[in-house]
Amino acid sequence: MRIAILDYEYAVPSSVAGPADILASIMRTSPLLTGSPVSVQFDIDFITEKDNQLWRKTKGTAVPVKLRKQEVYDLVIVPAMESDKIQLVLQRERRLIDWLRQQHLQRAELASICVGAFLLGATGLLNGKVATTHWLFVDRFRAMYPEVEVQDDKIIVDQGSIYTCGGAFSFTTFMMYLVEKFCGHEAAIIASKILMINLHQQPQDAFSIFRLQHDHTDSMISKAQQFIEKNYAEAISIEALAVQYNMSIRHFIRRFEQATGNTPLAYLQRVRIEAAKKMLESSQEGVEQIAFRCGYEDMSFFRKIFKRYVAMTPKAYKEKYGRNGLRLVTTSVVS
After folding, report:
1. In order along the chain (335 residues), what is the average pLDDT of each group of 10 residues?
2. C-alpha–C-alpha distance, residues 6 and 49, integer Å
Protein backbone atom coordinates (compact mmCIF):
# COMPACT_ATOMS: atom_id res chain seq x y z
CA MET A 1 0.00 0.00 0.00
CA ARG A 2 1.50 3.31 -1.09
CA ILE A 3 1.18 6.06 1.51
CA ALA A 4 2.21 9.70 1.06
CA ILE A 5 2.66 12.09 3.97
CA LEU A 6 2.84 15.79 3.14
CA ASP A 7 5.94 17.44 4.58
CA TYR A 8 5.28 21.11 3.97
CA GLU A 9 6.82 24.12 5.69
CA TYR A 10 5.27 24.74 9.11
CA ALA A 11 3.90 21.19 9.33
CA VAL A 12 4.13 19.89 12.92
CA PRO A 13 7.14 17.52 12.85
CA SER A 14 5.58 14.87 15.12
CA SER A 15 2.50 14.88 12.89
CA VAL A 16 4.71 14.14 9.86
CA ALA A 17 7.10 11.58 11.35
CA GLY A 18 4.69 10.05 13.87
CA PRO A 19 2.30 8.32 11.44
CA ALA A 20 5.23 7.01 9.41
CA ASP A 21 6.95 5.67 12.54
CA ILE A 22 3.76 3.94 13.71
CA LEU A 23 3.22 2.20 10.36
CA ALA A 24 6.88 1.19 10.08
CA SER A 25 6.86 -0.11 13.65
CA ILE A 26 3.81 -2.25 12.92
CA MET A 27 5.62 -3.90 10.01
CA ARG A 28 8.71 -4.53 12.16
CA THR A 29 7.13 -5.75 15.38
CA SER A 30 3.88 -7.51 14.47
CA PRO A 31 5.74 -10.54 13.04
CA LEU A 32 7.52 -10.96 16.39
CA LEU A 33 4.14 -11.62 18.00
CA THR A 34 2.24 -13.36 15.21
CA GLY A 35 5.06 -15.19 13.42
CA SER A 36 3.98 -13.80 10.06
CA PRO A 37 4.23 -10.42 8.29
CA VAL A 38 1.30 -8.02 8.35
CA SER A 39 -1.19 -8.57 5.56
CA VAL A 40 -0.57 -5.13 4.09
CA GLN A 41 2.91 -3.72 3.56
CA PHE A 42 3.28 0.06 3.73
CA ASP A 43 5.51 1.95 1.30
CA ILE A 44 5.83 5.43 2.78
CA ASP A 45 6.92 8.59 0.96
CA PHE A 46 7.21 12.15 2.24
CA ILE A 47 6.00 14.73 -0.27
CA THR A 48 7.30 18.28 -0.30
CA GLU A 49 7.35 21.25 -2.66
CA LYS A 50 10.50 23.12 -3.61
CA ASP A 51 11.19 25.50 -6.50
CA ASN A 52 7.68 24.93 -7.88
CA GLN A 53 8.37 21.20 -8.13
CA LEU A 54 7.00 18.35 -6.01
CA TRP A 55 9.53 15.94 -4.54
CA ARG A 56 9.18 12.61 -2.78
CA LYS A 57 11.53 11.04 -0.28
CA THR A 58 11.00 7.43 0.70
CA LYS A 59 11.15 6.74 4.43
CA GLY A 60 14.64 5.57 5.36
CA THR A 61 16.34 7.39 2.48
CA ALA A 62 18.08 10.75 2.50
CA VAL A 63 17.84 11.96 -1.09
CA PRO A 64 14.52 13.20 -2.51
CA VAL A 65 13.58 12.59 -6.13
CA LYS A 66 11.19 14.43 -8.41
CA LEU A 67 7.60 13.26 -8.11
CA ARG A 68 6.26 12.10 -11.45
CA LYS A 69 2.79 13.27 -12.46
CA GLN A 70 1.59 9.70 -13.05
CA GLU A 71 2.42 8.54 -9.52
CA VAL A 72 -0.71 7.75 -7.50
CA TYR A 73 -0.94 6.83 -3.82
CA ASP A 74 -3.50 4.74 -1.99
CA LEU A 75 -3.59 7.12 0.98
CA VAL A 76 -2.33 10.68 1.42
CA ILE A 77 -1.95 12.00 4.98
CA VAL A 78 -2.16 15.75 5.60
CA PRO A 79 -0.40 16.46 8.92
CA ALA A 80 -1.18 19.24 11.36
CA MET A 81 0.39 22.65 10.88
CA GLU A 82 1.55 25.30 13.34
CA SER A 83 -1.74 26.87 14.36
CA ASP A 84 -0.54 30.46 13.95
CA LYS A 85 0.54 29.76 10.37
CA ILE A 86 -2.74 28.46 8.93
CA GLN A 87 -3.33 31.35 6.51
CA LEU A 88 0.31 31.43 5.45
CA VAL A 89 0.31 27.69 4.70
CA LEU A 90 -2.87 27.99 2.62
CA GLN A 91 -1.28 30.79 0.60
CA ARG A 92 2.06 29.01 0.10
CA GLU A 93 0.93 25.46 -0.60
CA ARG A 94 -1.33 25.94 -3.63
CA ARG A 95 0.61 23.31 -5.54
CA LEU A 96 0.10 20.70 -2.83
CA ILE A 97 -3.60 21.61 -2.64
CA ASP A 98 -3.93 21.01 -6.40
CA TRP A 99 -2.00 17.76 -6.07
CA LEU A 100 -4.38 16.54 -3.36
CA ARG A 101 -7.31 17.15 -5.71
CA GLN A 102 -5.57 15.24 -8.51
CA GLN A 103 -4.71 12.34 -6.22
CA HIS A 104 -8.30 12.04 -5.03
CA LEU A 105 -9.57 12.11 -8.61
CA GLN A 106 -7.28 9.14 -9.22
CA ARG A 107 -8.83 7.21 -6.30
CA ALA A 108 -6.36 8.13 -3.57
CA GLU A 109 -7.91 8.35 -0.11
CA LEU A 110 -7.12 11.45 1.97
CA ALA A 111 -6.67 11.85 5.72
CA SER A 112 -6.05 15.05 7.67
CA ILE A 113 -4.72 15.44 11.20
CA CYS A 114 -5.89 18.26 13.49
CA VAL A 115 -5.73 21.66 11.71
CA GLY A 116 -4.38 19.90 8.64
CA ALA A 117 -8.12 19.90 7.88
CA PHE A 118 -7.72 23.52 6.75
CA LEU A 119 -5.41 22.37 3.95
CA LEU A 120 -7.80 19.57 3.04
CA GLY A 121 -10.71 22.02 3.17
CA ALA A 122 -8.93 24.28 0.66
CA THR A 123 -9.23 21.54 -1.97
CA GLY A 124 -13.02 21.84 -1.91
CA LEU A 125 -13.26 18.08 -1.47
CA LEU A 126 -14.89 18.44 1.95
CA ASN A 127 -17.77 20.55 0.64
CA GLY A 128 -21.07 18.83 1.37
CA LYS A 129 -19.29 16.35 3.63
CA VAL A 130 -18.80 15.96 7.37
CA ALA A 131 -15.40 16.68 8.94
CA THR A 132 -13.69 17.46 12.22
CA THR A 133 -10.66 19.44 13.36
CA HIS A 134 -9.25 20.60 16.68
CA TRP A 135 -12.04 21.98 18.87
CA LEU A 136 -10.13 25.23 19.44
CA PHE A 137 -10.28 26.11 15.72
CA VAL A 138 -13.78 24.91 14.86
CA ASP A 139 -15.32 28.38 14.61
CA ARG A 140 -12.56 29.54 12.28
CA PHE A 141 -12.93 26.42 10.14
CA ARG A 142 -16.69 26.92 9.87
CA ALA A 143 -16.20 30.54 8.84
CA MET A 144 -13.68 29.61 6.14
CA TYR A 145 -15.53 26.52 4.88
CA PRO A 146 -19.28 27.06 5.40
CA GLU A 147 -20.17 24.21 3.02
CA VAL A 148 -18.55 21.65 5.34
CA GLU A 149 -20.55 20.16 8.21
CA VAL A 150 -18.19 20.21 11.20
CA GLN A 151 -18.71 17.69 13.99
CA ASP A 152 -16.49 19.20 16.65
CA ASP A 153 -17.39 16.55 19.22
CA LYS A 154 -15.78 13.80 17.12
CA ILE A 155 -12.12 12.78 17.24
CA ILE A 156 -12.40 10.84 13.96
CA VAL A 157 -14.81 11.37 11.06
CA ASP A 158 -14.85 8.78 8.26
CA GLN A 159 -16.48 9.82 4.97
CA GLY A 160 -15.52 6.69 3.07
CA SER A 161 -12.46 7.92 1.21
CA ILE A 162 -11.77 11.11 3.18
CA TYR A 163 -10.90 11.03 6.88
CA THR A 164 -10.36 13.82 9.40
CA CYS A 165 -9.28 13.71 13.03
CA GLY A 166 -9.19 16.17 15.91
CA GLY A 167 -6.19 17.15 18.06
CA ALA A 168 -2.62 16.94 16.75
CA PHE A 169 -1.59 14.11 19.08
CA SER A 170 -4.76 12.13 18.49
CA PHE A 171 -3.01 10.91 15.34
CA THR A 172 -1.90 7.83 17.31
CA THR A 173 -5.49 6.65 17.74
CA PHE A 174 -6.23 7.84 14.19
CA MET A 175 -3.49 5.60 12.80
CA MET A 176 -4.93 2.64 14.72
CA TYR A 177 -8.28 3.40 13.11
CA LEU A 178 -6.71 3.44 9.64
CA VAL A 179 -4.80 0.23 10.34
CA GLU A 180 -8.08 -1.41 11.31
CA LYS A 181 -9.69 -0.09 8.13
CA PHE A 182 -6.96 -1.27 5.76
CA CYS A 183 -5.54 -4.32 7.58
CA GLY A 184 -8.47 -5.62 9.62
CA HIS A 185 -9.53 -5.62 13.25
CA GLU A 186 -7.12 -8.32 14.40
CA ALA A 187 -4.12 -6.45 12.99
CA ALA A 188 -5.27 -3.26 14.74
CA ILE A 189 -5.67 -5.07 18.07
CA ILE A 190 -2.15 -6.50 17.82
CA ALA A 191 -0.72 -3.11 16.82
CA SER A 192 -2.48 -1.32 19.67
CA LYS A 193 -1.10 -3.82 22.20
CA ILE A 194 2.45 -3.66 20.87
CA LEU A 195 2.50 0.13 20.62
CA MET A 196 0.27 0.65 23.69
CA ILE A 197 -2.13 2.94 21.83
CA ASN A 198 -5.85 2.96 22.54
CA LEU A 199 -8.00 1.84 19.65
CA HIS A 200 -10.87 4.12 20.58
CA GLN A 201 -11.01 7.20 22.75
CA GLN A 202 -13.73 9.49 24.05
CA PRO A 203 -15.03 12.44 21.99
CA GLN A 204 -13.22 15.80 21.87
CA ASP A 205 -15.78 17.13 24.36
CA ALA A 206 -13.75 15.53 27.15
CA PHE A 207 -10.74 17.69 26.21
CA SER A 208 -12.43 20.95 25.21
CA ILE A 209 -12.51 24.08 27.35
CA PHE A 210 -15.53 26.36 27.11
CA ARG A 211 -14.37 29.80 26.01
CA LEU A 212 -16.40 32.71 27.35
CA GLN A 213 -17.95 34.22 24.24
CA HIS A 214 -17.25 37.93 24.51
CA ASP A 215 -16.14 38.41 20.90
CA HIS A 216 -19.12 40.61 19.98
CA THR A 217 -20.20 44.25 20.26
CA ASP A 218 -23.44 43.96 22.24
CA SER A 219 -22.48 45.67 25.50
CA MET A 220 -25.77 44.84 27.24
CA ILE A 221 -25.36 41.12 26.55
CA SER A 222 -21.74 41.34 27.73
CA LYS A 223 -23.02 42.67 31.05
CA ALA A 224 -25.48 39.77 31.25
CA GLN A 225 -22.66 37.32 30.54
CA GLN A 226 -20.50 38.87 33.24
CA PHE A 227 -23.37 38.59 35.71
CA ILE A 228 -23.78 34.88 34.89
CA GLU A 229 -20.02 34.24 35.13
CA LYS A 230 -19.84 35.94 38.53
CA ASN A 231 -23.02 34.44 40.01
CA TYR A 232 -23.29 31.00 38.37
CA ALA A 233 -23.47 29.27 41.77
CA GLU A 234 -26.66 31.14 42.63
CA ALA A 235 -30.20 30.45 41.41
CA ILE A 236 -30.37 32.55 38.24
CA SER A 237 -33.70 33.20 36.53
CA ILE A 238 -33.53 33.98 32.81
CA GLU A 239 -36.78 35.93 33.16
CA ALA A 240 -35.23 38.03 35.94
CA LEU A 241 -32.15 38.65 33.80
CA ALA A 242 -34.33 39.92 30.96
CA VAL A 243 -36.08 42.33 33.34
CA GLN A 244 -32.72 43.39 34.81
CA TYR A 245 -31.54 44.46 31.36
CA ASN A 246 -34.86 45.99 30.31
CA MET A 247 -35.84 43.46 27.66
CA SER A 248 -38.73 41.13 27.05
CA ILE A 249 -37.81 37.47 27.65
CA ARG A 250 -38.16 36.63 23.95
CA HIS A 251 -36.02 39.59 22.82
CA PHE A 252 -33.40 38.87 25.49
CA ILE A 253 -33.04 35.22 24.46
CA ARG A 254 -32.85 36.10 20.74
CA ARG A 255 -30.32 38.88 21.30
CA PHE A 256 -28.20 36.74 23.64
CA GLU A 257 -28.08 33.88 21.13
CA GLN A 258 -27.20 36.21 18.26
CA ALA A 259 -24.26 37.60 20.25
CA THR A 260 -22.87 34.42 21.80
CA GLY A 261 -24.18 31.48 19.79
CA ASN A 262 -25.83 30.09 22.95
CA THR A 263 -29.17 30.71 24.64
CA PRO A 264 -28.86 32.30 28.11
CA LEU A 265 -29.77 28.99 29.75
CA ALA A 266 -27.22 27.04 27.70
CA TYR A 267 -24.58 29.66 28.52
CA LEU A 268 -25.34 29.38 32.23
CA GLN A 269 -25.08 25.58 32.07
CA ARG A 270 -21.77 25.72 30.19
CA VAL A 271 -20.27 28.23 32.60
CA ARG A 272 -21.34 26.02 35.52
CA ILE A 273 -19.98 22.85 33.91
CA GLU A 274 -16.65 24.53 33.11
CA ALA A 275 -16.40 25.61 36.76
CA ALA A 276 -17.25 22.06 37.84
CA LYS A 277 -14.52 20.64 35.58
CA LYS A 278 -11.90 22.91 37.16
CA MET A 279 -13.01 21.91 40.67
CA LEU A 280 -13.02 18.21 39.76
CA GLU A 281 -9.46 18.62 38.48
CA SER A 282 -8.07 20.45 41.50
CA SER A 283 -10.33 19.94 44.52
CA GLN A 284 -10.43 17.04 46.98
CA GLU A 285 -14.15 17.60 47.47
CA GLY A 286 -16.62 14.95 46.37
CA VAL A 287 -18.75 15.20 43.25
CA GLU A 288 -21.91 16.13 45.21
CA GLN A 289 -20.21 19.01 47.03
CA ILE A 290 -18.80 20.32 43.76
CA ALA A 291 -22.20 20.07 42.06
CA PHE A 292 -23.75 22.12 44.88
CA ARG A 293 -20.98 24.74 44.67
CA CYS A 294 -21.72 25.12 40.95
CA GLY A 295 -25.43 25.75 41.44
CA TYR A 296 -26.84 22.24 41.11
CA GLU A 297 -29.06 20.74 43.82
CA ASP A 298 -30.27 17.76 41.76
CA MET A 299 -27.38 15.30 41.30
CA SER A 300 -29.07 13.32 38.54
CA PHE A 301 -29.62 16.54 36.57
CA PHE A 302 -25.97 17.57 37.15
CA ARG A 303 -24.72 14.21 35.87
CA LYS A 304 -26.97 14.45 32.83
CA ILE A 305 -25.85 18.00 31.90
CA PHE A 306 -22.20 17.22 32.62
CA LYS A 307 -22.25 14.16 30.37
CA ARG A 308 -24.01 16.12 27.62
CA TYR A 309 -21.20 18.69 27.46
CA VAL A 310 -18.18 16.60 28.49
CA ALA A 311 -19.09 13.14 27.12
CA MET A 312 -18.28 11.44 30.43
CA THR A 313 -19.70 11.40 33.94
CA PRO A 314 -18.36 13.76 36.64
CA LYS A 315 -16.95 10.76 38.51
CA ALA A 316 -15.12 9.47 35.44
CA TYR A 317 -13.78 12.97 34.74
CA LYS A 318 -12.47 13.33 38.29
CA GLU A 319 -10.83 9.90 38.12
CA LYS A 320 -9.13 10.78 34.84
CA TYR A 321 -8.13 14.41 35.38
CA GLY A 322 -8.27 14.93 39.15
CA ARG A 323 -5.18 15.00 41.35
CA ASN A 324 -5.67 11.39 42.47
CA GLY A 325 -6.08 10.27 38.88
CA LEU A 326 -2.83 11.93 37.83
CA ARG A 327 -1.09 10.44 40.88
CA LEU A 328 -2.27 6.96 39.89
CA VAL A 329 -0.95 7.42 36.35
CA THR A 330 2.41 8.59 37.69
CA THR A 331 2.60 5.69 40.13
CA SER A 332 1.82 3.11 37.46
CA VAL A 333 4.45 4.55 35.13
CA VAL A 334 7.11 4.66 37.84
CA SER A 335 6.37 1.15 39.07
Report:
1. 97 95 91 85 95 93 91 96 96 96 96 96 95 92 95 84 84 87 83 79 55 82 93 94 95 94 92 91 90 94 91 87 52 36
2. 9
What are the structural domains of the chain?
Answer: 2-206 (3.40.50.880), 219-325 (1.10.10.60)
Secondary-structure percent of the chain, ordered helix, strand, coil, rounded to 5: 55, 15, 35
- Tell me the three state secondary structure of residue 247: coil
CA dihedral 287, 293, 299, 302 (to 10 degrees): -100
Q: Exposed (0-12), middle (13-18) or buried (19+): which is 39, by Cβ within 10 Å?
A: exposed
DSSP-assigned states of every residue in 124-192: TTTTTSEE---GGGHHHHHHH-TTSEE-TT-SEEE-SSEEEESSGGGHHHHHHHHHHHHH-HHHHHHHH
DSSP letters of 63-85?
--EEPPTT---SEEEE--B-GGG
Cα(46)–Cα(57) distance, rounded to whole angstroms? 5
